[in-house]
Design a protein that fits this description.
The complex is a heterodimer of chains A (about 375) and B (about 625). Chain A is mainly alpha-helical and about 375 residues long. Chain A is built from 14 helices and two strands. In chain A, strands 1-2 form a two-stranded antiparallel ribbon. Chain A starts with 8 loop residues before the first helix and ends in an 8-residue tail after the last helix. Helices cover about 35% and strands about 20% of the residues of chain B. In chain B, strands 2, 3, 4, 5, 10, 18 and 19 form a seven-stranded mixed β-sheet that branches. The longest helix of chain B is centred in the first third of the chain and has 35 residues. Chain B is elongated. Classes of the chains: A mainly alpha (about 375), B alpha+beta (about 625). At the A-B interface, helix 7, helix 10, helix 12 and helix 13 of A face helix 1 and helix 2 of B.
C-alpha cells in the first residue's frame, strides 16, 4: 500500500482518474451523437456541454467531502427531496405530469435528487446497524424507499420511479437482506402484479402491451419500438456513418435526441460503435465495482455498489427499451441522452464514488 | 493506478463484508448475463437481420410517386380544339394528417362555400379510400378561393391546394354524343383497368371517343422515386421516369358542318349523320338534344343529373348509335338492289299499283300510301314515288330469307363498325330471329310489311347513313369512322388507327346500281319525286330517299291527320341522301322524331347541309391520302 505522500496529484484533489476518464469518454460520444440526433444543432450541443460542465463541477465538489459527511447530510437531502416531490405533486408543471418545479427561470425535477438521496439515506440508516438487517430495519427502509417511489410513479414517471426504487433496494440487497424475505417479496409481487396492472395509467399499460406486439398499432404506441428497431437493425455492423442515419435525419425516429438517442447511435455507428460505447460504460462500471469492493466501511460499500449497479440498470433499461426488449419507460441513456437534470445527478453520483475512493484511511503496511 | 483492485487480505470487516462480497458477486454475474442478452440482441438485429431492417428503412425513406401522363387532345378535322386540358385547382386532404376532420371542414366552410353534395361525395370517398390517400374536397377552386385558403393554410394541416389539369370541352354540347367525356374513375372501371398504368390518373373516358380511344389518349404513366421524411414531405427526387403524354386524336368531324346540322334541326329531337362515302369519315354526328360534357368532368351535381336523366327529351340518349327507328321507305332502294341481285326483277319490270294488294286467301288489304294507286311502275319510278305496292310484291317474291341476307349487307341488323362504344345493332328480322325472340313462326304478311321498312325492322341513324354511303359508293361498303389519325405531341409523328376491311353489298355492276340511284335522284330532283321540291335550284345533282316511320297502327280504311295526333306520337321523318350524284362527297342519314314526313321535315335539312358542304367547303386536296 502507498502512503499519503505517494498519492498522485489527482487523488490528492480527490478526483478518481479512471472514473473521470471513462465519464469524459462517454460524455464526448454523447455530444457527437447529440449533434447528429438534434439535426446538427450546435446550440443544442453547446447547451448539453454546459450542463455536463455543471455536472463535472458538482462531481468534483462532492468528491471533496468525506463519505462520513455525505452520510450525515443524506437524511437532510432526503427530507428536502421528499418535500419538493410533494410540492411538485401539488403545484408541478409539465406535460400532463407533476414532474417539474419552477423557481423563476430555473426548472428542475425533484425526482432526480432522490436518485442520490435514497441510496445515501438507506446506506446511512443501515451503516450503524448490525448486518444483515433485522425485519424492523427492513420495514423502515422500505418506507424510506416507498414514499418517494410512489410520489414519482404518481407524476407519472415510471422510469425514474424504477431507478429510485432500484437504487434503494440494491442497498438493502447488498446489506444482506435475507433470501427468505426476498422470496416472500417476490411472491407478494406476483400476487400484486394484476392489481398493479389495473392501477396503472392507460399509457403505461399500453406500452407493455405494445412491447408484446409492436405491430398491433404501428402508427400509435408501437411506432416508437418499430422505428427504433428499424434504425438499430439497418445500422448493421459498421453503421451508416455519422450524420447519415436516415431514420433519424428524416424524422422517422421519435424522441431521437432524448430517450431514443441510442437508436441514432446504433444506426450511424453500427455494432462496432455500440461495442466501443459499451466498453466505455464498462470502464466506468468496473471502476465503480472496484471502488465498492475496496471501500472501507459499510456505508461506502453499500453506496458505491448501489450507485454503480443502478448506473448499469440505467444503461440496460434504456438499451433494452430501444432494442425492443423492454417496455418504453422513459429512461434516458446515461450521459448521452439530451436532458439537463439527469446529467447533473449522474455526475454528482460519480462525485460520491470519488469521495468514497479518495478519502480512504490508508493502511500502511510495514 | 490500477483500474480494478480486489480487496485481498482484509478480514477486518468480518462477516458483514463476507455477506457483501457474496451479494456483490451474485449481482455481478446478473449484470454480466443482462449485458450479454443486450449484446446478443444487438448482434441479432444488426448482423443477422440487417438486410431486413435495411429494406424497411429504405421503404420508410423512399416512396414511388406516379406521374400521371397528360391526356391527349382531341381536334376536329378543321383543327378546332374539341377536348383540351386546362389547369385547375382542387382542395385536397389526407385524412390521416388531420386531427379533427369535421372541425377542419367546418372551418373551411367559413372560407368558401361547400355544396352539400360535395361533402356527401367527400364522405363516400372517405369510406372507400385509405387513411393516407388523398381525397378531393372541392374541385375547380376560383383564384380567389385559392388565395383565401393560402392565407389560412396554417390552420388546416393535412389540407393542400393541388394544381392539376382538368379536361374541358370548348364546344360545350356540340359534339358531346360523338366525343363523349371523361369522369372520375369509378369502382367498376377500377376493376377493369390496369391499376399500375392508372396510378395517379383520376379520370377516364366514359363515353364516345374519350372512351373508344382511351388507350391512345391516356398515355403512359411515369414514376419518380423520392426521398420523404416522416411527415411525407418530399425532400428530393432520387430517380425519375417521365410520363409519356397521350396521343392527340384528330377527328373526321367538321365543326362547321356539325354546327350547321345542329342548327338545321332547329331544336327538334333527332339525329343527323354525315359521312364521306369514299373514306367512311364521319363529317357530322348530331344527336339532339345534347348536354354540356363539362358538367360531368368533376362530378355532376345530383340535381343537375336528375334533371338531365328525367327530361322527357332524353338529352343523355345517344340517338345516333342507340336510337332505334323503323327505317320505313328508306330501305326501298336496298330492296330494289335485292330484287336485281337475286334476278327477281329487271329494272324494266313493271308492277301494277291499284293502291293496295291482298295476299291470296286473306281479307287484309296492304295499302299503298298513295290511296289512288301509282298505276304501272318500274323499279326507278317505284323508288322515286316510294310505291308501297311495288315493294310489297317484290318482298313477297324475294321472301324473308333473301330480304334478310341482302339488307344485312347494307348493315341493317349489324353494327356499322363505327369506332365508338355502345352502338346498337337494331333489328333485321328473319325466321330464325322471330323463332328465337318471339317463339313464333314467320307469317307471309310480315314479309310484306317489313318490305317497306315497317313491322319489326328497327335501325339506328348511323345505319341509315351507312346505307346511304353504300349507294354513293355503288355497292362498296365502308365502315364509318370518327378517328382520322393520331399525332404524337412529342414527335409530331402521325399514325392511323386500323380500319375495317371494305366489302361489297351485292355482286351487280355499277351500271345496275345506277338504275336504283336514278330512282333516288328522281326523289329529290325528278318531276314526281316524293321530295322533289327540296331539290329545286341546287347547283349539283344528288340522290335521296324519304321515309316515314309510323309510331302506331291505324285501323283498316281509316286515315288520321297528323295534326290531330299528339306531338310525341306523330310519325318520325327519315331521309337518306348523298351528293353529288357522280362523285359523291357526302352521304347523310337524318331522323327527325315526330317530324311527320320525311319529305317535309328531313329532306330540306339534307339540302341545306349539301349546299353548305358542296358550295362553300371545297374538297381538301388529296384529302386523307
Amino acid at each position: 500500500m502507498r502512503t499519503a505522500s505517494e498519492q498522485d496529484l489527482l487523488t490528492r484533489i480527490h478526483i478518481d482518474g479512471p472514473l473521470l476518464g471513462g465519464v469524459l469518454v462517454i460524455c464526448a460520444v454523447g455530444l457527437v451523437v447529440l449533434y447528429s440526433a438534434s439535426s446538427e444543432s450546435l446550440e443544442t450541443v453547446m447547451r448539453q456541454a454546459l450542463r455536463m460542465l455543471l455536472g463535472l463541477v458538482a462531481m468534483c465538489s462532492i468528491a471533496q467531502f468525506t463519505p462520513a459527511r455525505l452520510a450525515r447530510w443524506a437524511p437532510l437531502l432526503y427530507c428536502i427531496g421528499l418535500a419538493l416531490l410533494f410540492a411538485a405533486f401539488l403545484v408541478g408543471t409539465g406535460r400532463g405530469a407533476h414532474r417539474w418545479l419552477e423557481f423563476g427561470a430555473f426548472r428542475f425535477q425533484p425526482s432526480e435528487i432522490m436518485k442520490i438521496a435514497v441510496p445515501l439515506t438507506v446506506a446511512w440508516f443501515m451503516s450503524d446497524k448490525i448486518l444483515p438487517p433485522k425485519l424492523s430495519t427492513v420495514m423502515i427502509v422500505l418506507v424510506v424507499i416507498g414514499a418517494p417511489t410512489a410520489l414519482i410513479a404518481e407524476q407519472p414517471d415510471l422510469g425514474t420511479a424504477i431507478l429510485v426504487m432500484t437504487a434503494g433496494l440494491l442497498v438493502l440487497f447488498f446489506a444482506g437482506l435475507s433470501w427468505r424475505w426476498i422470496g416472500v417479496a417476490l411472491a407478494v409481487a406476483v400476487v400484486l402484479a394484476p392489481i398493479a396492472w389495473y392501477s396503472m395509467h392507460d399509457y403505461q399499460r399500453q406500452r407493455i402491451e405494445t412491447l408484446l406486439d409492436p405491430t398491433k398499432d404501428p402508427l400509435g404506441t408501437g411506432y416508437h419500438i418499430i422505428q427504433a428497431t428499424i434504425a438499430v437493425g439497418s445500422g448493421g455492423v459498421s453503421g451508416k456513418g455519422w450524420l447519415n442515419g436516415t431514420q433519424s435525419h428524416l424524422e422517422f425516429l421519435p424522441e431521437r435526441a432524448t430517450d431514443f438517442i441510442f437508436a441514432v447511435y446504433c444506426e450511424e455507428f453500427g455494432l462496432i460503435g455500440v461495442l466501443v460505447l459499451l466498453a466505455a460504460y464498462s470502464l466506468v462500471l468496473v471502476r465503480g465495482f472496484s471502488i465498492a469492493l475496496n471501500a472501507q466501511d459499510n456505508f461506502g460499500r453499500l453506496v458505491a455498489a448501489s450507485l454503480t449497479f443502478t448506473f448499469f440498470v440505467y444503461i440496460f433499461v434504456n438499451m433494452g427499451m430501444v432494442t425492443g426488449q423492454l417496455p418504453v419507460v422513459g429512461v434516458p441513456l446515461p450521459l448521452v441522452s439530451y436532458g439537463g437534470t439527469s446529467v447533473v445527478t449522474l455526475l454528482t453520483g460519480f462525485g460520491v464514488l470519488m469521495s468514497i475512493q479518495t478519502h480512504r484511511r490508508f493502511i500502511v503496511k510495514s | 493506478m490500477p483500474l480494478f483492485k480486489l480487496p485481498l487480505g482484509r478480514k477486518s470487516n468480518g462477516a458483514e463484508f463476507e455477506i457483501f462480497l457474496r451479494r456483490f458477486w451474485i449481482a455481478g454475474v446478473g449484470t454480466l448475463i443482462m449485458a450479454c442478452t443486450l449484446v446478443l440482441r444487438l448482434v441479432y438485429l444488426q448482423v443477422f437481420h440487417h438486410d431486413l431492417y435495411t429494406t424497411l428503412s429504405q421503404e420508410n425513406r423512399l416512396k414511388v410517386v406516379p406521374l400521371p401522363p397528360i391526356r391527349g387532345l382531341i381536334y376536329s378535322r378543321d383543327g378546332v380544339l374539341v377536348a383540351g386540358n386546362r389547369p385547375s385547382f382542387a382542395l385536397e386532404v389526407v385524412p390521416e394528417r388531420v386531427a379533427d376532420l369535421e372541425q377542419s371542414i367546418a372551418g373551411i366552410r367559413q372560407l368558401m362555400t361547400l355544396e352539400s353534395d360535395q361533402i356527401e361525395r367527400f364522405h363516400t370517398d372517405l369510406k372507400q379510400k385509405r387513411r393516407f390517400d388523398t381525397i378531393t374536397l372541392k374541385s375547380n377552386l376560383t383564384t380567389e378561393e385559392v388565395a383565401i385558403f393560402a392565407v389560412n393554410r396554417h390552420r388546416f394541416a393535412g389540407f393542400e391546394i393541388a394544381g392539376r389539369l382538368t379536361r374541358y370541352y370548348p364546344l360545350g354540347s356540340q359534339m358531346v354524343h360523338a366525343v363523349g367525356y371523361v369522369g372520375r374513375i369509378n369502382l367498376e372501371e377500377l376493376n377493369r383497368i390496369d391499376a399500375g398504368s392508372y396510378s395517379g390518373t383520376t379520370h377516364i373516358g366514359k363515353e364516345g371517343i374519350e372512351k373508344g380511344q382511351e388507350e391512345v389518349l391516356h398515355g403512359t404513366v411515369g414514376y419518380q422515386r423520392v426521398e420523404v421524411n416522416a411527415q411525407g414531405r418530399i425532400l428530393r427526387v432520387v430517380e425519375r421516369t417521365p410520363p409519356i403524354p397521350g396521343k392527340d386524336v384528330h377527328l373526321t368531324l367538321d365543326s362547321t358542318l356539325q354546327a350547321a346540322a345542329i342548327e338545321a334541326l332547329a331544336g327538334n329531337k333527332g339525329a343527323i349523320v354525315a359521312i364521306e362515302p369514299a373514306t367512311g369519315a364521319v363529317l357530322a354526328f348530331v344527336s339532339n338534344p345534347a348536354f354540356d360534357p363539362n358538367e360531368f368532368v368533376n362530378g355532376i351535381s345530383a340535381k343537375l343529373y336528375a334533371a338531365l336523366r328525367d327530361s322527357p327529351d332524353r338529352p343523355l340518349f345517344n340517338r345516333v348509335l342507340q336510337g332505334l327507328y323503323p327505317p320505313g321507305s328508306t330501305i326501298k332502294p336496298a330492296m330494289a338492289i335485292a330484287g336485281l341481285e337475286y334476278k327477281i326483277r329487271l329494272p324494266s319490270d313493271r308492277t301494277w299499283c291499284p293502291g293496295w294488294i291482298r295476299l291470296p286467301g286473306q281479307i287484309h288489304k296492304y295499302r299503298c300510301w298513295q290511296k289512288a294507286g301509282h298505276g304501272s311502275v318500274d323499279l326507278s319510278r317505284a323508288i322515286a314515288e316510294s310505291c308501297d305496292v311495288y315493294f310489297y310484291t317484290l318482298a313477297k317474291d324475294l321472301g324473308i330469307d333473301r330480304m334478310h341476307d341482302m339488307l344485312a349487307n347494307f348493315s341493317l341488323g349489324q353494327r356499322t363498325g363505327v369506332d365508338l362504344p355502345g352502338e346498337l345493332t337494331g333489328i333485321l328480322p328473319s325466321r330464325e330471329w322471330k323463332r328465337r325472340t318471339r317463339k313464333l313462326p314467320w307469317f307471309p304478311g310480315e314479309t310484306l310489311i317489313n318490305g317497306i321498312g315497317q313491322g319489326f325492322m328497327l335501325a339506328t341513324p348511323m345505319q341509315l347513313a351507312k346505307m346511304a354511303t353504300v349507294f354513293a359508293n355503288r355497292g362498296e361498303v365502308v365502315a364509318p369512322h370518327l378517328t382520322d389519325y393520331f399525332s404524337d405531341p412529342l414527335t409530331n409523328v402521325h399514325s392511323e388507327p386500323e380500319r375495317i376491311a371494305r366489302t361489297r353489298a351485292a355482286s351487280i355492276d355499277s351500271s345496275t346500281w345506277q338504275i336504283a340511284i336514278d330512282g333516288m335522284h328522281e326523289v329529290v330532283q325528278g318531276a314526281r319525286g316524293t321530295a322533289q321540291a327540296t331539290g329545286v335550284g341546287a347547283s349539283y345533282q344528288y340522290a335521296g330517299k324519304t321515309g316515314t316511320a309510323q309510331l302506331f297502327g291505324i285501323a283498316q280504311d281509316k286515315t288520321v291527320k297528323n295534326e290531330n295526333v299528339v306531338k310525341h306520337l306523330r310519325d318520325h321523318a327519315l331521309f337518306i341522301a348523298f351528293a353529288p350524284l357522280d362523285h359523291p362527297r357526302i352521304a347523310l342519314g337524318i331522323v327527325i322524331e315526330n317530324g311527320e314526313s320525311g319529305s317535309h321535315a328531313a329532306a330540306p335539312i339534307a339540302r341545306q347541309l349539301f349546299d353548305l358542304y358542296l358550295d362553300s367547303m371545297p374538297p381538301a386536296p388529296n384529302a386523307n391520302g
